[in-house]
Specification:
This protein is α+β, with helices and mostly antiparallel strands and about 130 residues long. About 40% of the residues lie in helices and about 15% in strands. It has a domain at about 35-120: Alpha-Beta Plaits, CATH 3.30.70.100.
């Protein structure tokens, strides 16, 4: 036999309502933050190895508004997620070119490219 000393029959319900409200507000605020301006793009970036991957991703992350950057050395594609109110594909490509890696729209400076380690010096695309 159980004795219930709680005289309020809504006791458990009263605790869960505020918790559900807080969880709902948290979910709503998180979806709002990620929904506005979030964009994912793929950018062709030339490189060869793991060192290239680290350098390319670091350069992409240096652009304000970039939240995710992942370069795949097998196809040379950089997948970037960014807030399009703060960043653009052009800004990201420019940042990557500044560290020595060509993209389809920005060519790295020859001096910067020449300073890359030998394993990172890829066959540069012909000028258009």
């Amino acid at each position: 036999m159980t004795v219930n000393f709680n005289l309020n029959p809504n006791h458990k319900r009263m605790k869960t309502k505020p918790m559900m409200f807080l969880v709902g507000m948290l979910f709503l605020s998180m979806t709002t933050v990620f929904a506005f301006g979030a964009k994912t793009e793929k950018i062709k970036v030339y490189g060869n190895c793991g060192s290239c991957k680290t350098r390319i991703e670091k350069a992409a992350h240096s652009v304000k508004g970039v939240t995710q950057a992942s370069w795949d050395k097998t196809d040379g594609m950089l997948t970037v997620t960014f807030d399009e109110t703060k960043a653009s594909v052009s800004k990201i490509e420019e940042a990557v070119a500044k560290v020595g890696h060509d993209t389809d729209h920005f060519k790295a400076d020859d001096k910067t490219y020449d300073k890359l380690p030998g394993c990172c010096q890829y066959d540069r695309p012909a000028k258009k």
